[in-house]
TrEMBL record:
PROSITE patterns: TPR. Pfam families: TPR_7 (PF13176), TPR_8 (PF13181). Keywords: Membrane, TPR repeat, Transmembrane, Transmembrane helix. TPR repeats lie at residues 295-328. The chain crosses the membrane at residues 6-25. This is MalT-like TPR region domain-containing protein.
Length: 345
């Protein structure tokens, strides 16, 4: 039972519009043609203050058309800023389909360099920074829509375009490596200028979660390991966030390894990882500080011990997982622990 710290993902990828949100668009208003400003003001009022007289989606679309008609590039901060605001608006009103459509457009705009001009290093950094955010939001939206194929594509794009993975470009047969193979074969992970350890660490964590759910365990394990590397590089994390994410990653690794191979050596390694997760959780604070990770780790510890034939010890951990799930109101954890305890021996 792997667990994703969704709140942490959202912390890592906030919807920040055009480098400064609402104030950015207000400040940049002077760069928009007069015909677009009226639509943009109406869109912003309806979006942020709920004015019923305006339909923000239509007003943002109109502002985009007028700005393009005035000759501004589709990759300009003015246009991409409106698209980011438009995606945020559809997220706010819960229109997942429209949000995904807008993010798809934004991503296609900025994921490739412009064909009609030479791009400076600063322009490339700005463009790919926006593309990373768009891909992250799009992957989250795709997961919400249960479209795991699309979510995986976006996340793999982030990894391939934000890490220096060129240390090994092909395998022994000369065939090109896929993203997962590149992550494994690369040496120390070097970030591109438009990426941060937190963004990439969260992306790797999400990607590992998808691989695990798709039963690609031999892919999930190294990706989770690389996420731990990024955790070490992230100097801006609070101690609590670092501890919780470390506990989650060690727990997810333990579960993956125990699924990957059932021999004693693999299960012993999984047991060690689950133990590390539990030790971290004990240092963090009261039960529930790291959310559902606590009871899940106890459940996984029981599952690993059960595979090792230590059924008595396993039952003890299942009982603790049940009690801890009940304490924090984690219904899925309660159900899984009860099933494990009711399983015939």
């Amino acid at each position: 039972m792997a667990w994703r710290r969704v709140a942490a993902v959202l912390i890592a990828t906030p919807i920040v519009v055009g480098g400064g949100g609402f104030l950015y668009l207000q400040y940049k208003m002077r760069n928009y043609p007069t015909s677009a400003r009226r639509h943009l003001r109406r869109a912003l009022l309806g979006h942020h203050y709920g004015g019923l007289e305006y339909l923000p989606g239509q007003e943002y679309d109109a502002a985009i058309r007028e700005t393009l008609n005035a000759g501004l590039s589709i990759t300009s901060p003015e246009i991409t800023g409106i698209y980011e605001h438009l995606a945020d608006y559809y997220n706010k009103v819960g229109d997942l389909s429209q949000q995904r459509a807008v993010l798809s457009i934004l991503f296609k705009i900025v994921c490739k360099p412009p064909s009609d001009q030479i791009e400076s290093a600063n322009e490339k950094t700005r463009r790919l920074s926006i593309a990373m955010k768009a891909a992250q939001w799009a992957s989250e939206a795709a997961e919400s829509a249960a479209d795991m194929k699309a979510a995986r594509i976006y996340l793999e794009w982030i990894v391939e375009n934000s890490l220096d993975l060129n240390s090994t470009s092909s395998d022994e047969s000369g065939l090109p490596l896929d993203v997962q193979q590149k992550v494994v074969s690369a040496g120390s992970l070097k970030l591109a200028p438009w990426a941060t350890p937190r963004q990439i660490g969260m992306t790797l964590e999400q990607l590992g979660h998808i691989y695990s759910n798709q039963n690609l365990i031999d892919w999930a394990v190294p990706v989770y390991q690389r996420a731990l590397e990024m955790l070490d590089q992230d100097k801006e994390l609070s101690l609590l966030e670092r501890q919780c994410r470390s506990a989650i990653l060690h727990n997810n690794l333990a579960e993956c390894i125990s699924k990957w191979d059932s021999n004693k050596e693999a299960l012993t390694q999984a047991l060690q990882l689950a133990t590390i997760s539990m030790q971290i959780l004990e240092k963090v604070g009261p039960l529930g500080t790291c959310g559902e990770c606590d009871p899940i780790t106890y459940f996984n510890m029981g599952a690993i011990l059960d595979k090792l034939g230590q059924s008595h010890e396993a039952v003890s951990y299942f009982k603790q997982a049940l009690a801890r799930s009940q304490h924090i109101g984690f219904s899925q954890g309660v159900e899984k622990a009860q099933r494990a305890l009711n399983k015939p021996t």
